[in-house]
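Budget justification note: compute hours in this period were largely spent on complex prediction jobs such as the one shown. Inputs:
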Amino acid sequence: MRFTIVKSIKAQQKLSRQLIRSGKSIAVVPTMGFLHDGHLSLIKKGLSKADIVITTIFVNPTQFAPGEDLTRYPRDEKGDLEKIKQAGSQIVFIPRLTDMYPDDYETYVDVENLTLTLEGESRLQHFKGVTTIVAKLFNIVQPDFALFGMKDYQQAAVITKMIKDLNWPTKIIVCPTVREKDGLAMSSRNSYLTPVQRKQATALYQSLILARQMVKSDERRPSEIRKSMRRLIKNAAPDSDIGYIAFTDLKTLEAKKEITKNTIASVAVNIGPVRLIDNMRIF
Amino acid sequence: MRFTIVKSIKAQQKLSRQLIRSGKSIAVVPTMGFLHDGHLSLIKKGLSKADIVITTIFVNPTQFAPGEDLTRYPRDEKGDLEKIKQAGSQIVFIPRLTDMYPDDYETYVDVENLTLTLEGESRLQHFKGVTTIVAKLFNIVQPDFALFGMKDYQQAAVITKMIKDLNWPTKIIVCPTVREKDGLAMSSRNSYLTPVQRKQATALYQSLILARQMVKSDERRPSEIRKSMRRLIKNAAPDSDIGYIAFTDLKTLEAKKEITKNTIASVAVNIGPVRLIDNMRIF
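Corresponding output:
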């Protein structure tokens, strides 16, 4: 079909219903814009699964806490549209803020337990904003598939749980993190980094590689691995402030007392004013 | 189509998707079973709007508070199936409790403000349970239309708000309360009443008729109308305990300081151990 930009919620609902009635399957790639190769890999994966990929662009205010970077979040709608078209996604849904959250808005979706640890601990209400906007997008787009990146590993787990609990007929597909050549996980927020900070930011990736190596060398104690990761980050990134270094189960997100199979190591680090996260399966 | 009973969530999702793909429109009538003529009027209305009416039967535990009547809620699956078939609903969805709420269930939908007054004030968490189960049913059944009764007027308002805020492509239709000959609003809970209580229970309806008459006679003060309603209820139903008598706006549910257009009078009254509610548009 012809590349189509949709801004109205009703129009997108109608278009999706028409596509379903005509036998087409739909994949959705929800984004906050300022697209990088990570997003584009989701579109490509979506095209391998469904007839139509709908990319959404919406900087969702309910997932930002007061004082976070909502107002300065990077935007480039024109560049995004070009990239989305090139990648082969046929529809872009760009809803208006006042349509998505009118003044009398008051309904929220909350996954109560998986959201208490890791990102949820430092970013209160963040996941409630994420699950609410994803619920809205699911209802508008009516997708068979939804694609998310592994970089936001807890987000993927929370949305997986939300889909299962509330019974959307949508299959989630979590795609590998796409990295820069030096290992830094791609993120729209990397654009905030100064050249010096950008160099230091590779410390997150390096610390995860170190963790994986230690596990390969039969280290199983989270405390020891954490200590080595912390040392590496502090050395490689003097301007850093470590939020957390965690070892959790891939599915339940429960903290591991000993590194066993299906362990994800995840880190949150402030480099200067920029909060970065990354994770890696280490066993 | 042939009368079909579906018990599996996945089977219902698949069946609904097939119906949509084949061009059929779907209406859903969510019930907790023990059907009366009120429910059947919803099925009939649904059939006038959509090709297929899916009636759901599920006694939803999350909308009962501890100590409420969950365990003794009346059930009659065989009778219900016969009535549903007679009324012309083609599909009955009767999910299993452990499928709907497995042990690790943790996701809830909450309409935060409309739920604070009236029923929400005395039944904490009630509406969170209602909106959560309705969200689940919408995602499983994927209806074009959803039918609810006006007897649960606040419930209808809360679900209308939930649909609008979270963008389900579903149109809600609220149908008039169906009453017994003496005016008592039909309710599965009426089956709890002894013959003496059953007679006293008409006090709710009579008090609403009185309110409407007073407004017709140009009384506009809620306090005066409430006083007269209270007197009537106390006289007609000596075993009663009045929960609330409220005058609210039809849409916003805000309390009216003066009776103006679009006012709903609503009452909650315990008759013996049975909590009954009713309402009427009085202007």
